[in-house]
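Field reference: "sequence" (input) and "structure" (output). Example, DNA polymerase III subunit delta:
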Amino acid sequence: MREIERIKESIAKEKISPIYLWYGEDRFLIKEGLQVLKSFYLRTDPSGSGIEVIDPKEMTPAEIVERANTMSFFANRLVVVDEVSYFQDGQTLDLEPLLGYLSNPNPSTCLLLIAQSVHKGRKLYKAIDRLGEIIEFSSPKRPQEWISWVQSELKARGKSMDAQTTAQFIEWAGHQTGVLSQELDKLVVYVGNRAKITIEDVKLITPRTIEASIFDLLDAVAVRSAAKAIQTLREVLREEHPIKVLTLMVRQVRLLLGCDALRRRGGNVTEVSSALGIKPYEAQKIWQQSLKLSTQQLSKGLSECLNTDVALKSGGGDPGFLLEMMIVKFCEEEVS
């Protein structure tokens, strides 16, 4: 991702900011960025004694500033403060020491603050934006961005996939950068010296997420193929608890109904993400699937899901059988 490249560029030019704020939803990318930044300090001090990681729950901002001002035998120090809450509404800590430090930071120390989320209107955020450097770490949003990210990771590993195989890999492994990276590592080991990873490799090595299987199940329902849908359901139930499967089914059908309602009142795919509170890549998939299922079929499907939920929780029969009956009813022809 571009965030990692920014850090590498700073290291290459030896222009590391005296204070950073890193934040975002993607902890894997933040962790990767931190490893890159640490590598700079490990060059001159392989022992890592010039790197300090601080828990902000155990130190006040004044104590953190004191640590940042501490001189080291080695030329440079990295002080990492992880999971800070300084940028949230309602925090009551005295941040004046940090604000004062920003105006005159220790030139031999890089002070890195890491947060999950931030309020950009806060005084400390604005000060860092003006005097330091802020990097947001976010996962890819759209399908093409995910494909580009995976192919970039493959290039770094000396491997490649064509676009179709990459898309299939993402569908099977899910949309978490950390999980995808681990699965790529497995594929790299499996193919050995071979440069190109094929769709057959992916199908053999990469486990399919339950979310991907639910999509396939509903695709089968859309064409009223009860046999295909039940086959997919049985494959999922070998790995997942029936309640979890049903919960994901209910969520999926509700999202599909939301897309259906949005489309009927003149909305389009670009509105789905904000309207339903889901990520853009999922919004596009849900929208495309909603085109295959009628309003009546979706409403009936939700009703069957809820009836099955009651039966499962009240001990109304074998869970697998109840879910299969639900799918059969979901696939029945509509009565006009």
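The mean pLDDT is 89.
The CA atoms of residues 253 and 302 lie 6 Å apart.
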